[in-house]
Amino acid sequence: MSGSRNISRRDILIHGGITAAGLALLPSHVLAQLARLGQDETPVAWSDDLSRPLNPDFPLLQWDELDSWITPANQTLKTDHYPDPEIDMSTYKIEITGAVRNSLSYTLDDIKAMPKKDIAFTLECSGNRGIRGFRGGVYNAKWTGTPLADILQKAGMLDSGIEVVFFGHDEGEEVMRPLRGKEVTVKQNFARSLTIDQAKDPDILIAYNVNDQPLPPGHGYPLRLIVPGWYGISQVKWLKRIEVRTSRYMGRFISRDYVTLREEIHNGETVWRQVSVGKGRINSTPARVTRVGPTYRIYGAAWGVPIKEVQVRIDDGTWQTAEIIQGRDAKYAWKFWRLDWDRPSSGEHTITSRAISASGTVQPAPDDPFLKRKHTYWEANGQVTRKIQTVSG
Q: Which residues does residue 332 pair with via DSSP β-bridges, in sequence order?
C-alpha cells in the first residue's frame, strides 16, 4: 500500500476497474505520476515476525506487499477439503431439487444467460489468524453471477422446506460411527447449508466469474456459491446440486468440523456451546508502514462486516481515527485505511488497529472474555498489534 496526494494506483484499480496488467493502457503522464509515488514513500519493515508464513508453499496474502484493492486471482487463497474434481463440461448441469414445485437443471450457459450481478466481497478463511503463521487467509475479489434468489423463485420452494443445502462435485470418504463399536465408511460430497430466510438474500450469487474472468479450476469452475458477509467455508465450489430440505442437514463441515466451542457463563455456571461457523466477524490489521521525510504512514485493512470507522493506537496512546482511503461504500469488501504519524521518537513502537462496525460493534481486544472463552481456533478476530523500529529526523 502506498499513498498519494492526488491519485494512487489503488484508486485507479478500484474506480477504473482495471487489473495490474492493464496499467500499460494508462496515459503516460499517469504512469509517470505512479512512478513518482513509488519514490515518495520508503517502505519500513516490521520488527516482529508475524508476516512469516506457516508454510512457504501455501499461498497466503503478504500484507506488506499488498498494493491492490482487488486481489489478483493468482494471489488468492485456495483451500480444499477433498481432491479437486474433474468435471465433464459436455454433460455438466447444476440441479435444483428437493422440496420445490419445479425441479430444475441448468448448464453453465443457461446460468450465464440469466440476469447477472457483480459484487465486491472480501473472502476470509474462518481459520485465519487462529494459529501462528496463518495470517493472510483473506482476499478481496469482484464476483459475477446470477442471484440465487431468482433461481429459488423459479423452482418454487414449498412451505415445508426449512433450509437449502449446496453440494459440490468434490467428494471424499468419511468414517461414521452410527452404532457403538461399529464404523461405516461412506463417500460424501462437500456441502454446506443455509436457512430458507438466509438463502433468500438477493446478494447471494451462483458465480461463474471472478475479477471479470472465468473461475479458475481450483476456485470452483464452472460454478460456485458466493455468500457475501460469510466465512469462506460457506462458499461452496464446483456446484453440483442445490437441494431444499424439510429437515436439517448435518454433514461434517457444518456439524462436526468448522464448529466453534465457547465457554459461556450463566448464573455463575459454565455452559459449553458449540456453534457452526457462519457469518464473518469484524476484523482489521495494520498492514504496511512507509516513510515520507519525517512522517510515517500506517496502512491497513478492515473487513468482515460493514465498517463505519477504523481506529489506531500507537504504543499506549489514545485511539486515533484513521482515514478510509479505499472501499468506503463497498458493503461487503474490505476498507483500506491510513494514518499519518508525524515525527515519532526513535526506537521500537507498537501499532494496534481496531475496526468499528456500522452497528457500533468494536473489534475485541485479545483479552476480551468473548475471545478468551473460545477454545477453537476458528473465528479469531482480536485486535492485531505489530512492532516497528523508527528513526527520528
A: 121
> Tens digit of pLDDT for each residue in 270-305?
999 999 999 999 999 999 999 999 999 999 999 999
User: Is residue 70 within 8 Å of residue 37, measured between CB atoms?
Assistant: no
**Taking the domain 9-70+278-390, which CATH number applies?**
2.60.40.650
CA distance 114 to 102: 18
Determine the Cα angle at 81 with ends 78 and 87, to 5°.
80
Q: How do beta strands 295-303 and 94-98 pair? A: unpaired
Do residues 62 and 43 touch, judged by C-beta distance below 8 A? no
Secondary structure (3-state) at 96:
strand
d(CA 363, CA 353): 9
Least confident range from 53-57, 61-65, 243-247, 347-351: namely: 53-57
Residue 316 · residue 382 · CB < 8 Å: no
Is pLDDT of 366 > 50?
yes
- Domain spans of the chain, in order of start: 9-70+278-390, 74-257
Burial letters for 151-179: b for 16+ Cβ neighbours within 10 Å, e otherwise? bbeebebeeebbbbbbbbbbbeeeeeeee
Fold match flag (9-70+278-390 vs 74-257):
no
The crossing angle, in degrees rounded to 10, of helices 28-40 and 9-16 is 140
Q: Which CATH class is domain 74-257?
A: alpha beta
| CA gap 240, 167 in Å, rounded | 6
How many Å apart are CA 317 and CA 387, to the nearest integer? 15
pLDDT tens digits, 147-172: 999 999 999 999 999 999 999 999 99
What is the pTM (predicted TM-score) of this model?
A: 0.88
